[in-house]
Structures are given as structure tokens and as C-alpha cells.
């Protein structure tokens, strides 16, 4: 990126590159309207003469060659997404046509936008704060509908609002301590530690709540971490292959074939799953298999969801008992596999014994998958997670800042416990204030800006 | 041709607390220096409160002393009571304050100036600065004499077009009826310097014989006096002290003030200048805190030689008759007789945003300034600026780099950074809360922080420098010893812990671990620390603080490291911020006007937002990459 880059007029396709019905090419910068005027004709006014925020029907030309019939939206800065003059060309969809129009735009004076550059300009022109800019990137990168909703919530500033609210509280307390230091005649700190403790307790709760939602945030942006468990040869790998839709796991009739874990990201209806196949759980003397088993247990401990595959054609044994122990009090679904064979285990028995929902399936004949899809969807989307009125943290950087915030708040509490002089408390309060400020871009940290824009993933 | 021309390296205008420090620093660095004063008898005059130091101001004095300034030594020679304030609070807010014998203080400083080599004292009013091509060449006095110089330090205090006011009485004089300096302002304006008009005030002085002390609380000095100067032998300051006295205003006092508030020149509009919010007059306090039933009044002696007493906390510009009535409502002052009336004083000062952090004017090479002329308030604030302005004038003449202290190094750094960075529309007073890194900037470690810098300046002697180096070594060694000395759970230790209400040991620990317990400290552990070496109190104090508050000190140091990153990103003083396309208009205006020296300083300018700073950071990064 060179100097004066910000004075360039940039352009990019700002809808997904797919064969959808409509595509949008966005141009932003001082020359945006002039560039559009060079390729757009409608026999009436030039775009440079039309009012801001108006739509115009016409045709895009490359020289004398007609490319497409389009609608053009003209927005003059600062009242646009980037804060600069902006033109959006709504053309007919189709990868080839969008690329062809973009090439023409570039040919007539714009330069291709770098990843995240529209958002970066919006941020630099004061059109959005950092957490909003980051949320835009999350929208672009979000892999499912629910993730998108939460990103939009963040975009509107629910994170900013909450963080600002907490910062206000902290700032007031710091100011109080400091004014007491300078004006002890009029402001007393007697008993202040206990007052501060009462004020900070709900703040810690709020911060912890936001950190917790960031785990949901991870579910949203990476998919629900789902571990498939079962004793050897229960059909875990067959299930994995059905769900993934290709031969990912090696399926044999030999128990213990999957010795380590396989991971795959899949989409099940509306939901993305980070699917992890594991080695079968059993007592074994094989060292490599033992390692696989212990890894499976670890993975299960970290999972958001456990799918326990039961071999319905075999009697339950001590290995099943072990797995049932592992899934107690966890979010789990039990698949009673091998309905294509004669079942010796009943659905009702499993339900009663574990308290988890049970679905009868046949991985081999691919039956029962619709039920599984619906159940996963119900569990995660209509169940516990509600994105509408919660502040959801979907960004790793925010989460890190929140964790530091919480740690500093705890140090303030520790200071109160130890009865350190009040002016010491401001040291940790200052850290709290600064860390919260980092989330909304009101504290400035060296290289932060570059780091953030470096992580922006495409040309919105 | 002027009838008289003389040549000096440096001219200092004014011999108050700023001017004295500036002149001494320059002369001690071997530069031929002349200091002008309107009256030889007013050198280092204390026209307001009779004390040096106090909350955060005490820090300034100790820092100044560590750098090689004079104020600390001078008060050690002339104090009549001394007290370490806030001892019940944390070490960051401990602050030394000493009552001065005003006349002694002034006389002693004059003696020091008169006996300093390369220093000339001249009684005259400087009326013009001489500037050629944005470069200072000297000054002219009102009598027409010209003094050529390579650098000039302005330290005119409250004397420029000064006016003293109470009620409807207004006298065109400086403090204490001294002659005002009425000509220099025009010359400064002529050379493009932007002026402000500030005001401050002082309470009445009263006759000791008319006070009934039996109705007041006696305020004694400390049993063991801590000297201000790191070079003063602590033994030499243990002497007999005088007392101050505490009494309070009451509802009757407040009623009289309220009923006569329309006769105050502040409220009637006679006074145009802006007063200090943090050093308010009694009428300001009564209006600002209507719910307060009473305010403190400290009665402080003006010296050993006089019966005059200072009524601290009751400065005023109300008419004489109201002053009498309100003072006489205060317990112990029922029959008080006033020696000098309270008054407010208005004076010209500069908009200090015209200065670089070195206290040189951005637009006039070689012109420096310090003290109340820069818009501050207080003797200590004045002294440290005068010192830094003097040192930097000298450095420029010698051809060395300027000395700039940053906010993490000293209260002095905070004070000057605030003055040259933040818009200031009232007399600036130093306060503890202004120093973000105050746990590191304690009055007890000013020598450890700044002796080395003073030594580099050339104003700290080899002996004093070696002393602090040795002190550093002893502290480090003792910390190491205490960290590594195990204490077993033996009966002696358990007895000791029991005796101090501390939890008994279950397993072995170290002395340092015990010191970290809230109820214990380094000094208490003497009983169970058998191998403790004999160490001076100031060394022991550092060991105690370093160990006891280790975690906090560490966290504050991390904050400083963060702060330094933005400070170290330098900005060019000639840079045109219009070049950065995406800065907001207000930010461009402010940045072009104030020309900050670093991103850090830019971030403290009001009107420059964090988003603007992000833009600047991105821009600098782009420049860096392009250059590569």
C-alpha cells in the first residue's frame, strides 16, 4: 500500500461471487462518480449532476460495446458507507458479467479495492467504530444465518453500548478516588472499598456474561464442536462419511480402525458443525489406540455437542457404560445405529437410562439423518441460544480484551480485600478502562489498526 | 543607537521562583547570565502562602532538587515547621510541606544568587524583546538599554499589566503593592505571541495578638523532620518548630458572603481574568459547595520575625468591610485585626500551547519561558518550569539537545506536557490526579529517578551522583537478600507473627513473603531478621516499598511501557496535516496549530479523537513502508 492510497478511487464486487440473480459493484472515492459517468449512459442527466441518494436506470458501456442494463445508486460523501462519494452498480448476476463490469470500471479510472478496504475507509472516515468495522467482517465471513444475525446486532453497536456503559462506571470511580486525593477536605474515602466492591460486582458479572457469549460466538463462526463417540465398530466412521458426504474416514469391519481423530466442517440444515470422529472407546493394550482413546475423551470434554453412536446389534457392555458416564450432564444425542440389522438394544431403554434423546438410524442405509438434522437444529437454534437481546462477542480480539478486563477487575477486588491504599486501586481500574477502550477503539494501541485491517478477509 | 549595550549568553526576565531557578541553572552551567527584577528586594518573594510543598507540589520540589535546582535547599535552610502529609495513605501520595520564614526564604535565595559566579542581577523593567528573523537577539529595558543575548527566558510571574482588586478598589500594581510591568505585553503581542489574562487571589494577613488560639486546634510539625533536599544532612533540620492552627468557617460566615456576593468584583464583572478552580476563594467555595456547613481555615505564621499570620483557605476579593465581618465570624478570629487586606490579582500570561516541550517558543528561536507567565499557579510549579526553561536555554546555547521529561518520569514532565498540550483557560495547578503513573513517581524516589538526568545536565555534583549510585546498589542488594532469606516456622517467628495478629506459618517462607502481608512491613521484621545489615532509612524505605507493592509497581511499569510506545512515534514539527486525507477537519486544525512532537502528545490534544490517532498511525505505517 503506497502513500496517497486513500485518495484513490477503489472498486470491487461487493456481493458474493456466485450465479445469483443480482450483483453489485461498488465504487468509492473522490472520482467514483466521474468513473461511473464514463461508462454509464441513460440519455438523460450525467451522474455528476444528479442529487445524492438517487437511483438511475441505464446501460453500462465498455467504449461502444453494451455490457448490461443496470440500476445505479449515487451517494455523495460523507453520507455513504465509506464516507466518500460512492456509486453502486446493480447489474445482472453471474460471475462473468460482474467481473467484466468490474474490469471496465478499473479500466476507466478506479483501482481494485484491497481486502477490507471499504470498511477500512468507513472506519478511517469516522463512519463506524472498531467493533462495528470488525462486525462487518464477521458478517462477510459468517457461515450461517444465525451468525449473521449476531454480527448485525454487533454492527448496530450493542457491544459498543455495553462497553461504553461499563467504562463510564469505571471512569467515575477513578475520578472519585482521584478527586478525594486532591480534595480530602471535601471528599472522603472512608469505607470506600466496600462501596467499590458493591459497584464492581455487577460489572464483573457483565464482563463474564460477555465472555461466555463469546463461546457462543465461537460456535457461530466456526460451527458447533461436535464429537462422535462410540465403542469400536459402532459405525462412527460410517456416520461421519454419510454426514460429510464423501469417503473421509476409512471404514472397515475391523474394530479399532480409526486410531486418531478426523475433523470435518459440515452443514446440517441451517447449522454448521465442526465434526470430530474419534477412536472407539474401549480398554485396549494397543498403545497407539490407547492414545486415540484418551484423545477422544479429551475432545468429548471440550465438545459443544456429543453424538453417541450405539451399536444396536450388540448388547451394551462396559465400554458403553463408560461412554454413558462421559455424556452425563452434557448436551448429547444418541444414535441407535444398525436399524438395518436385528436390534438387541431398545430406544426406550437408552432414553430412560441416559436421559438424552435417541434417534434410530442406519448409517449404512443413510436413514434417520433428517431426524438428526432437526434435532441438532432444535437443540442449538430454538433452544438455549438466543441472539436477539444478548450482547454476543464473536471476535477473538474482543474476547481477549474482556478476559484481561475481568482479570484486572479481580485484582481490584483483591486489593480491596488486602486493604491497599485507595490510590493503588486506580492502577487496575485504569487497566480495566483501557482494555474496554480497546474493544471500541477508544484506547489506541500501537499497530492495532494494521493488525485489524490485516485480518479483514475480503473486499466488502 | 542605545546609550548602553551589554552582551550576555542568557537573559532571564524576572527573579521570582521561576526566574531564580532559571538564572542559577544557566550561570552554574558556566554561561554569562543576567537576571532582571523590578525590585531587588522582591527576589524569590512569597507574596501568597507562607509554605513550600504540599500535596503533589512537594513532589515537584524534590524532583527539582534531584535535578540540581535550588528550592529544596533554600527551604531546608529557612523552614520553621515541616510536615509529611497523607502519612496514613499510600506512599504515592505522601507529600512534604514546610512553612517558611518568608523573609528568610527570600533573603537566603538572594544571597545564593549574589554569590553565584557568571550571574549578574539588575533592577530594571524589561520592556521589549528583540527578535530578528524569528530568532531572539536580546531585550531592551524601559530606560532604553539593550542587552544582547543568545537566549532569553521570560519569567514575569504575575507582574505583566498587573492589577490588584478588592471590592471596588483597584490598584495598578503587582503583588504587595510592587510596581507592575506595563510595557512588555505590547512587545510580545507585536511579535505574534498570544496572551491570556488570568487572575489569582490571596487572603488577608492578620495580627497574631488579635487571635484567640484557645478556640483552635494546634497543628504541630513532625517529630522527625525529613528534609526536602537529597543533599541536606537530615540531622541539620531537626530543630524547634512553630505551630499552625486550624479553625473553621460557619453558617454565619457563609451568610455574610452570600449577602454581599454582588459586591465581589468577580461577580460584578470588574475582574476579567479567569481564576484557578482548584485554589478557589472563600466566596467561590461557598457558592460551589452550598451544602457544606463549614470550610477549613489554617492560620499560618508568615515568619519568626513578625506577628503577621496568613489565613489559609480564605482568599477573597470582597470589599474591606465585608472582609472584616466575615473573618470575625470565625472562632478565634472574633476580634481579629487585619494587617493587609485580601485581594485578587489580574495579570497577563501566555497561551502555553505556543511552547515546545522544551519550553521554547515554537515560532521564536531562543525564546524560552517559565512560571506563572506560562499560565500556571504556585511557587513550586513556577520553580520547576523556570529550571527546565533555563536548562534548555543553556543547552541550546551550548549546542546540546534539549532535556524533556515525559509523563512517566516526573511530575515535572506531567506539568509541562499538560501546559504545552492541553488547552488551559485557568491558572494550572499541579495535582496528584494529573499524574497517571504516580505510584512510580513518588517523592521518596525522586533522586533514584532523576539524579542521573541532573548529572547529565551538569547540575548535580559527582559526589551527589555517586551517592545515589551507591544507594541504588544497596537497595538492590538488600531486596535480593530479603527475597532469598528463608524463615522457618520456628517459635520466635511464630511469636512475632502472633504478636502482630498475622497468620502463623505452616511451612517455611521468606522474609519478602512476610513483608508482602498487609499487616507487616520491612521495618517490623527487624525483630526476626537477624542478619539485617545496617542501612540508612531512605534505603530501607525503598526496600520496603519495592517488595510490599511489587505487583502494583510491575503493572504500572507495564502501563508506562505501553505509553512509551506512542511517545516514541515522533512527528515532524513542519508536517502539514492536510496531507492526511482522512483526518477530521477539527483534528487537522488542532494538529496544524499545535504541531505535537509525537503521536502520544497528539493523542492528548483536545479535539483529536482516538479514531484520528488510528488514522495517523496508519499513515505513519504507510510512510514507513514506502520509505523502505
Please describe what this structure looks like.
The complex is a heterodimer of chains A (460) and B (628). Chain A has 460 residues and is an alpha/beta fold. Chain A folds into 3 domains: 5-127, Probable tRNA modification gtpase trme, domain 1 (Gyrase A, domain 2, 2-Layer Sandwich), CATH 3.30.1360.120; 155-219 and 395-455, Four Helix Bundle (Hemerythrin (Met), subunit A), CATH 1.20.120.430; 223-383, P-loop containing nucleotide triphosphate hydrolases (Rossmann fold), CATH 3.40.50.300. In chain A, 47% of the residues lie in helices and 17% in strands. Chain A has a 7-stranded mixed β-sheet. In chain A, strands 9-10-8-11-12-13 form a 6-stranded mixed β-sheet, sandwiched between helices. In chain A, helix 3 (117-124) runs antiparallel to helix 4, helix 4 (130-141) runs antiparallel to helix 5 and helix 7 (192-222) packs antiparallel against helix 13 (396-418). Chain A starts with 9 loop residues before the first strand and ends in a 5-residue tail after the last helix. Chain B is an alpha+beta fold and 628 residues long. Chain B is built from 20 helices and 24 strands. In chain B, the strands form 6 sheets. Chain B has a 6-stranded antiparallel β-sheet with strand order 16-17-18-19-15-20, with no helix packed on it. In chain B, a hairpin with a 2-residue loop joins strand 12 and strand 13. The longest helix of chain B is centred in the last third of the chain and has 23 residues, at 462-484. Chain B is globular, with a radius of gyration of 26 Å.
Descriptive keywords:
heterodimer; A: 460 residues; alpha/beta; Gyrase A, domain 2; Four Helix Bundle (Hemerythrin (Met), subunit A); Rossmann fold; seven-stranded mixed sheet; six-stranded mixed sheet; 17% strand; B: 628 residues; alpha+beta; five-stranded parallel sheet
